[in-house]
């Protein structure tokens, strides 16, 4: 055979495979999937591919599954993760005894599917869910699959995949991180369900617990109020004698949501229109670290020190309470005496992540009072709680031994009752006696009737005190009133068609913006802050309060806010004409803007900025002034939006420094972009750029570097330099407005 014939034959061979192989979603017993031929299987709806790949910089070959139509190649499953093939000789096939095997260069088995059932006449098929299954050719019943990749997850949790246990077969499905982006072999972190009496999800580093979610309480995890049904995906926990697992489903077909265990953390992403955004991640902060504060330690982020003892306890270590000592935990102020039940009570801790459930006991049909009695009667029971918080609470869980890994979780409404000596009640009862004497004295003045009445009341009060020795302490979670209306998530979801993609107005660094219509017809803009940007709850509330105080006709008005579950949302007035950039950088629309209109817009922005800098109660630096952050109302009046990055200053402070430079390159003042030094002058710089853009209708694309003469600033460098040194320019400009 001469060379050209060979080339012709082999190229037609590849052409054949290129044309005919990519459509199949299955191979039968006589077919193979071969690395050298580049064959792949594509699920029927085109969503997933199974084939050979090399991750990152590695040259090793692996068989895996990835998303077909999202731009960043996202692997969701790897077959031979422990056993790479060093060249492209890998072949996937169903061997003659019906096993799914991956053969390497020596035709030895690099990986095989762990099929327990006797296979015969089988096919391998990649389902639309991304599940690779081995099944009988004419039997599509999932119960009868010989094997499925969903039972052996890698680092990715896909919709419909059960994470947890099949108690009948002892199969555990847990996520294991990749060792590195170049190496899919099992890394340190893993994530799965611990089968305690009261199951919970635990993230482990090696064999050590690193983070726990807290148990499922019917609505969510007590330690992770974020994991909850949302408009994007729903979520359920199933626990019966056969199975214990968690599962989620994507609700909107256009939005892909997956969870991945990274080398350092668990992350949930959503993909919308080919763009990825981080929804949330765990651990969220230092206080999520398992047992950081030791037994009876209470981890409170934002307080110094983070680790404190819960009420009624003091640090065990007599040394200064420093991070090295935290793990030693806390001891009781007053020793518990177990025998004398009169001297024991329970203190209610409102809104807490439940303690480690390793030594717990559950009965789903007991009520809270039965639970208390059960706990009271066993000296090693240290706490009790409802096991399910739906419909006002039901079920009973009790803890034996010291309590570990608790922290306040504001969004979670689960209470835990912790055993305490009654010394606090004793104080309470003494107070009670004083009250009794006073009441009796007063009552005698008002006569026998009153005495009787009061005695009745007293007895009932005292009964209450003695039977129910709880001290109610709302340690967490009073909701203070912000000066802005609160919108429920349901209202916002309805208004935005469940955050439909069709309602999307835009996307900022801080999340997606949707258009919504309230039931009364009012149009709103809904800014859904992405998880990555969500500051602490308190910071968010501060920001809401701040924005609410800013009232100016050239600033977008805040109508309300929503904090629910992991959602933090701001609701603004809707601006029908969109943002300024959609006019000035659009060849067809720029014609709408006459010179007087442009002048009006410039003056409006200047007024708004001046208000922020000089006239509002606080000195505010916007830090991200640009054309897309200037919105236009129906009369083309400009309004500055997006205070997400604004920095608040005390009245006399004019300059600050930050390590985290935020903003948009091209608009940023050099000293800010380079040194993180910002002041009102940085905003004035951005204003100058904006001014040039409005006048020229051209975008300032380049950087500010003097050697780049090409950008707008380069052209106008001298003017701009002058503008900055002669600050505040908005003021001067206003003289002409
Ligand atoms: C397997 O793939 C072929 C296309 O190559 C398709 O015609 C056939 O219907 C598929 N079999 C099943 C069981 O889906
Ligand atoms: C098919 O593969 C399985 C799993 O590796 C192996 O046990 C079995 O012997 C193989 N059958 C044949 C005929 O090679
Ligand atoms: C395959 O065979 C070659 C040569 O006999 C040997 O060097 C290599 O280690 C073998 N590889 C595997 C994975 O068994
Ligand atoms: C296959 O199953 C056996 C027994 O069920 C188990 O010990 C083994 O680890 C499994 N192998 C893989 C690769 O999952
Ligand atoms: C999600 O909601 C759909 C529709 O209500 C339902 O069919 C599905 O079972 C739910 N999935 C989960 C995991 O709760
Ligand atoms: C993995 O974790 C790190 C945080 O340590 C993060 O920066 C990174 O974006 C994460 N995600 C991916 C896909 O690597
Ligand atoms: C759970 O509590 C109910 C009601 O008190 C009781 O009837 C049942 O026996 C308990 N179950 C267990 C396993 O203790
Ligand atoms: C208290 O509970 C522990 C742990 O379940 C148990 O071992 C012990 O026997 C119980 N004591 C009493 C008095 O019921």
UniProtKB/TrEMBL annotation:
Record SUPFAM superfamilies: alpha-D-mannose-specific plant lectins, Protein kinase-like (PK-like)
Protein's organism: Quercus rubra
Protein name: Receptor-like serine/threonine-protein kinase
InterPro entries assigned: Bulb-type_lectin_dom, Bulb-type_lectin_dom_sf, EGF, Kinase-like_dom_sf, Pan_app, Prot_kinase_dom, Protein_kinase_ATP_BS, S_locus_glycoprot_dom
Gene Ontology molecular function: ATP binding; protein serine/threonine kinase activity
GO CC annotation: plasma membrane
Topology within the bilayer: Single-pass type I membrane protein
Domain named Bulb-type lectin: residues: 24-147
Presence of the UniProt keyword Nucleus in the record: no
Keywords: ATP-binding, Cell membrane, Disulfide bond, EGF-like domain, Glycoprotein, Kinase, Membrane, Nucleotide-binding, Receptor, Serine/threonine-protein kinase, Signal, Transferase, Transmembrane, Transmembrane helix
Biological process, per Gene Ontology: defense response to oomycetes; recognition of pollen
